[in-house]
Amino acid sequence: MWVKGFAVNSLNRLNSLSRSRKIIGGILVFLVFLYLLGSRIPSIGRKSAPVDETASLCIDDNLRFLKSEVKKYDAFINHYPLKAGEKFYPAYVGNGKVSVSLDSEKGMYIRLNRALSLPVKYYPIVAAHLDDYSSKDATVLNIHHGIAEKIQCFEVDKGWRSNCLTVESLVYASRTRPSILVQDIKIRNPSKNSVVVNLDQIGQTQLKDAKVSKASTTDATGMSVEYTSTQGVILIPDSKYKVHIAIATVKIGPSVAIKAGKSVRFHVVTAVNYTQAVKSLRHQNTYRGLLESVMKIDYASLREEHIKVWRDIWKSGFGISNSKAAGSLNGDKINTTIYYVLSNIQAPLHELSTTVEEKSKIQKTLHYPDRCYGGHTLLFYSETLWSEIKDEEDIADVTSTWMITLEKKGCNIIVRAGAEGVLQAILLSLGGLRFDDNHLEMSMEPKDLHRDLLFHRLNYGNNTC
């Protein structure tokens, strides 16, 4: 009876309302109904993004924290395909002994003469893919950290970017342990479905006289880890010489099933050791010990150890005001070119195998640049030093050109100090700078001073300027 009375009273009150208030009330009731219905049926009340747009939004979510680094030319992003206005910069890492590029199918490179120019038919990078799913990819080259990263987003639940499965693959060539390449993979599956991700790990192909074996060790957590050992020969083109190489790489399975709402990690370490160019056989036996010792180190500590060295190297630097004139040389080209060159040079000052006495000699060399640099600025008049870079061969060519130029201009001693020495020589060459009788001289034409130039931390004596 109470319910019936309440309904009658409510109906009488509704009839007493004006027409406009009845309309407003009806609209409010309808909106509440839509809201309640939409919460039960996801396709009502919310609009799904198109397939390609969903994966693209997922990529953007993963890249948004890099805005400040990109603005400062410390990081460079390449979408696939390239977005309008994007310039392609290879996602390349190296430490003077070994290098690899995330966006290449050419395998690993090792040193021959002045650069990492000798290709090895060995592919240490693990590639992840999902069949029958829409996806978008992007690479990030963080030159300040010496790290390349590939981000892949797969739409495993239709229409929702928050349900994209994401594969983050981070690669670096250790600065403290130059025989070591590292790939850290993290796969996140926030969707409501279990997903199987395929993992392609190629290893050696067409490596002459290749001998492959398997072994195992334990990682930092005490878990057993399997790895493959490969020994082979690399023939140097147009030469009777050859390089004997030994490689050990952590082995992972061909696929991994990731449950809904879960994530997995893989820590893939590759140890590389090789001879100088020789005519006779030399065995390399230290590579297994290198890998097994590195596997005992926590992956985060190993990465931070590497990043710290790159930060120390970049304490010296150069800046230039931006120019919109066609063909102008700006900060992006300058920073990436210097990074690629330094990636081809070892940093013995920071390598664990360098003795205290050797480090002391390096410091003395860095503090007294001697006859470096003798000549006019290389900033505006040497196109071959700033040529377009598309792949590993271009990087090796530019590195060799820079090293030959610096050596001819009186910097042959300081460049032997490693990455820091090469950077100091490059900085001096950009301004046509030279220390003489305790003062700094600049050999630059007035017509070249139409842009702002900033040099910081040029070494001289025990002080810097």
Automatic annotation (TrEMBL):
Superkingdom to which the source organism belongs: Eukaryota
Membrane topology: Single-pass type I membrane protein
Major localisation: membrane
GO CC, alphabetical: membrane
Bilayer-crossing regions: 20-38
Compartments (UniProt record): Membrane
Keyword annotations of the record: Glycoprotein, Membrane, Signal, Transmembrane, Transmembrane helix
Matching InterPro entries: K2013-like (IPR018795)
Entries under PANTHER family matching the protein: SIMILAR TO RIKEN CDNA 2510039O18, UNCHARACTERIZED PROTEIN KIAA2013
Protein name (Swiss-Prot/TrEMBL): Uncharacterized protein
Lineage, broadest ranks: Eukaryota, Metazoa, Spiralia, Lophotrochozoa, Mollusca
